[in-house]
Specification:
By secondary structure, this protein is mostly beta strands. A hairpin with a 4-residue loop joins strand 2 and strand 3 (96-98).
Amino acid sequence: MLPLALSSSCETSLWTRMRPHLIAPLTATLLALSACGDGGGAILTPGDDDDNPPPPDCTATTCGEVRIALTDADGDFLSYTVDVVSIRLERSNGDDAHVLPTRQRVDFADLADVSEFASVEAIPNGTYERAFVRLDFTDADVSVEVDGVPAPAEVVDASGDALEVVDLEIELDAANPVVIASDVPALLQLDFDLEASHEVNLNTTPVTATAAPFLVATIEPVDTREFRVRGPLVSVDEGAGSYVVNIRPFNHETAEHGEFTVLTMPDTACELDGDELEVADCLAALADLPDDTPTVAHGVYDVVAREFTANRVLAGESVPGAEFDTAIGVVAARNGNVLSMQGGTVIRRNGSVVFAQGNIEVTVDSGTDVTRDGGSPRPLAIDDLSVGQRIQAFGDASSSNFNPTLDASGLGGRVRQHLTELTGTVVSAVTGEVRLSLFSIDGRDPQFFDFDRTGTSLITEADPQDYQLDTGTLDVGGFDDDEGIAAFGFIAPFGSAPPDFEAESLVDFDDLRALLGIGWGFNGTEAPFLLMGQNGFVIDVTNVDLGARQFLEIGPAIFDITSDLPEPITVEPPADGPQLYAIARGLEVEMFSDFGDFATRVNGLLNGGSNMRSFTARGAFDPDTTMLAANYLAISFTTP
């Protein structure tokens, strides 16, 4: 297991780095892969009339299907909403195909743990080698956390000017282009890497996020994450255990982006109009509903079989914004029947979606229905809604976009509990119980939560320094004191602690993907490595050009690579599994799936006069060898 400090000599520096990171983004350390170069990005005038032209004339033999999914590599943003104006693919002969029928407003921070299918388009058969994405930041809505409170951030280019419209060109991996053929659906996942795309400065008002948007593209996702499909119902096949929707992504009111089949399993959880149903009953009920009934499905996409299977389905009034206004966030305090969230997303029946940066108060009463993702082994009531729980509340929202209220009381009002993540270090672990010193509750700093009245008495109220998890029959024998872990589950009922949390799974930090972030400033460096070759890079941690961005992050634990590690960190490809490597210069990105080819290109650019500005890698870290097996790596260069 990975200890939080690699040696006693670095324990103090490690702990002083972790707490500020949980409160807010690392000030001026998220150096964009190309934030400071080439004028900070191309500023264009939108041409919406031509951005999404009519689809081509297709027949069963001349066209095939491409499925476009959008996701995000996590960054320190509470919300990051921009307009995706258009996406098009290009063949080597210059012919192109537009694959996003309508402009979409997307909160990429919401996609940190999920990929959303944005469209299913029939396009001419052939091999597509490039992708072009147009993003419009004119009305961007971006929030970060400062001292526990959401704060607005302005997205700017390297000159400090507000970012407007940016065109990005992605050269797909030569070994893995998008191949379109009749009756063989293809997947293209576009990943907006927020971590690699920004330098955040908390010392300005408003906070500034210097950006050069960095997108990567792959036909095979490099990490396992949930997929989401949204759209109105088209048809149901009870015998096959499936239904078909017309994709309507990102809370859009009217878009219809192609038909898509959702498969179910016997244990697929289903909630329809607030009622939890067995999957067979759910499909039967769906078959009786109008074709335009809203649905949302979360599940797994099998790249080989080209099938999506839902592990949970929401339909009808259970879909946010369908019949009720909805507020989504983490309960930071509870006073009687009023739940308070410090910031959250509000989805209204009129189609508007906002991230409210103030306090959201949700009122519940004995008439409020309470449900849980995946179902619950016992009936739930409002007493099950406690501090730290991530929720989705349905009711009537006020008009405010900053400090809205939502009335979820009475007939029709309800609250759904979402799986909540804790991170922290083990205080003690015995069969049936783990006690943690918390780092975060669903990504937020626990010191800003009000745990009053969470316990059976004043002395049993939840204590973030000694937070008690009911682990049931989970194996806790491998967890040592002071070891870092993540726990997934649900907060215990209000006023019932201890325990404070009902854990459904536990994950050691060893099993979490590590993030390595390095930056060398505006001009970059010509010598970022001590050694480099076809099999890996050894980072030169003594390089005088190193900036403030020089960290290794595992869960909430942050290591300064120049002082907290016993040896210079080595970055190598993993032994197996999909790999994705990217190089950015300006607004052009090159993709690779082979580390050797990627390393050759990196070496060529360094020898050709380009300096390396930043280096972002994700993968499994081995503390004994200080080696990161990176299945994802993104590097930014200057242009000579």
